[in-house]
């Protein structure tokens, strides 16, 4: 039986297009030329921007086009078990099922959520889900039992738990669960009356829209999220600055995905200015922001807007990256590898890619970029041995015939 990974990228595009959509219709929906669509379906290459536009027009994630996940994601046994528990936790707690129990001590709840966020930031999404499912039940029980004067604080903690549950679901392509989780997070953030948490939830929803190829909604939601928390001139509160900086930088990422280079650069300049005011990276509500973080994002924006040389120049200036979470650093290095492939440094690109995938294989198999980079590198002078090693790590063929 032919597996989804057995098809070439061009064949997958054609299969996803199906008999009811012509190449001309796909070209119109994606804003690309018919010649570009034909070239892509013949597996004759294509830039990341092209694949992103095609995947958006096909209403799917780019990792499906690249074969790193099937149209309905096939998961490992541990993934499926975790996702079932996470789904039960999200839906049960929202319905009030199983929350009439003795809540944990505050320190225990805090430790459980901290472990979940730490696993997520390290790129261990299965571990994050395994931690957040019980923490979500505990947070719901805590909110249910909270006295009136503590309800807002308990609702804020519950909002954080739902938001992380949505993030994990989104990483596994479980869009319905991601939307449910982020919706419950918004409800609890509203109960908490916390503007910062509401903005974090809005940014999370925008990211889900991005992964669901709903770029117009992603752009609008991202704009709402950063405008709602714009700091006053002279504001020196690091938490407020970091939250705003992250949100305006994420809006730049969304604009870049939309192909709005000027808009992305303008928003990014605001993020860079905030980071300069801060002087260092800080962590707020599970998200880091500062000079290193915004530069890492700038590298990704430069690559996705067709400026690989600028991306590599930015990488040379980033300096100390110890403040980046493991997943943020890994993502940055994938962007660097893609920039190297785009500038015809095929073997160097594969070396960078192999280093990332060897260090974090579990994280890498949830990403779409390794397939893009491998395709670019295989069109150049990359060695077959490196491509075979990469295929072994990712568990899917990346060798282009």
From TrEMBL:
<protein>
    <submittedName>
        <fullName>DNA-binding protein</fullName>
    </submittedName>
</protein>
<dbReference type="Pfam" id="PF01381">
    <property type="entry name" value="HTH_3"/>
</dbReference>
<dbReference type="InterPro" id="IPR001387">
    <property type="entry name" value="Cro/C1-type_HTH"/>
</dbReference>
<dbReference type="InterPro" id="IPR010982">
    <property type="entry name" value="Lambda_DNA-bd_dom_sf"/>
</dbReference>
<dbReference type="GO" id="GO:0003677">
    <property type="term" value="F:DNA binding"/>
</dbReference>
<keyword id="KW-0238">DNA-binding</keyword>
<feature type="domain" description="HTH cro/C1-type">
    <location>
        <begin position="21"/>
        <end position="65"/>
    </location>
</feature>
């Amino acid at each position: 039986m032919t597996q989804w990974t057995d098809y070439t990228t061009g064949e997958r595009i054609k299969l996803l297009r199906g008999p009811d959509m012509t190449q001309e219709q796909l070209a119109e929906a994606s804003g690309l030329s018919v010649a570009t669509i034909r070239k892509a379906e013949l597996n004759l290459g294509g830039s990341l921007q092209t694949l992103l536009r095609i995947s958006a027009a096909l209403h799917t994630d780019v990792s499906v086009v690249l074969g790193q996940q099937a149209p309905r994601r096939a998961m490992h046994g541990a993934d499926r078990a975790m996702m079932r528990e996470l789904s039960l936790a999200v839906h049960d707690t929202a319905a009030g099922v199983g929350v009439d129990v003795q809540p944990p001590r505050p320190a225990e709840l805090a430790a459980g959520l901290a472990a979940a966020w730490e696993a997520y930031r390290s790129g261990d999404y299965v571990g994050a889900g395994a931690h957040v499912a019980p923490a979500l039940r505990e947070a719901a029980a805590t909110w249910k039992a909270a006295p009136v004067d503590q309800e807002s604080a308990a609702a804020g903690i519950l909002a954080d738990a739902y938001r992380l549950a949505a993030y994990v679901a989104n990483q596994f392509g479980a869009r319905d669960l991601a939307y449910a989780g982020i919706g419950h997070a918004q409800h609890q953030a509203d109960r908490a009356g916390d503007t910062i948490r509401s903005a974090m939830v809005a940014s999370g929803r925008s990211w889900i829209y991005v992964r669901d190829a709903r770029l117009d909604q992603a752009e609008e939601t991202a704009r709402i999220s950063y405008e709602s928390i714009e700091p006053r001139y002279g504001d020196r509160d690091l938490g407020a600055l970091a939250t705003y900086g992250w949100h305006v930088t994420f809006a730049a990422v969304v604009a870049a995905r939309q192909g709005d280079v000027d808009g992305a650069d303008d928003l990014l300049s605001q993020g860079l200015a905030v980071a300069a005011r801060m002087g260092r990276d800080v962590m707020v509500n599970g998200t880091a922001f500062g000079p290193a973080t915004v530069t890492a994002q700038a590298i990704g924006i430069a690559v996705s807007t067709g400026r690989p040389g600028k991306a590599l120049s930015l990488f040379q200036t980033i300096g100390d990256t110890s403040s980046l979470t493991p997943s943020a650093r890994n993502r940055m290095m994938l962007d660097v590898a893609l920039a190297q492939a785009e500038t015809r440094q095929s073997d160097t690109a594969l070396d960078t890619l192999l280093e990332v995938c060897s260090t974090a294989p579990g994280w890498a198999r949830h990403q779409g970029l390794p397939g893009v980079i491998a395709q670019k590198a295989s069109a150049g002078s990359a060695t077959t041995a490196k491509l075979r090693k990469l295929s072994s790590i990712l568990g899917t063929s990346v060798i282009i015939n």
